[in-house]
Prior knowledge:
By secondary structure, the protein is α+β, with helices and mostly antiparallel strands.
Amino acid sequence: MRVNEYNSLDEFKAQYIGVWDPSENHWLGLDFSYDGAEYRLNTGSMYETKKTILPDGREAIFGLYRKNTDSGPGPDYSLLEEFATLDEVLNSKCINGINFKQIIMDDSTELLGQD
């Protein structure tokens, strides 16, 4: 049974390109589950106030995070990787060695929330 709400990659991409405006369906972040774990795609850093500069000198615009399973002190999510473009996010393999564009379109990927 398909639980994923996205019908196309273009539908997903349209929500994370442009200016944040929920009334226009543009979001800052997406919480989702895949293969038994929870993740977050975030525009900008979740925990750092300074912008991240990637090794190639570009500014990180997106970050992929995995939700921590322990309830101890510390942040709720751990950074997996940061990216300068949405295309880099889509081609990333930081989750289980699988391209993110496959994960975000997988039938079993569940969208948990957007903000």
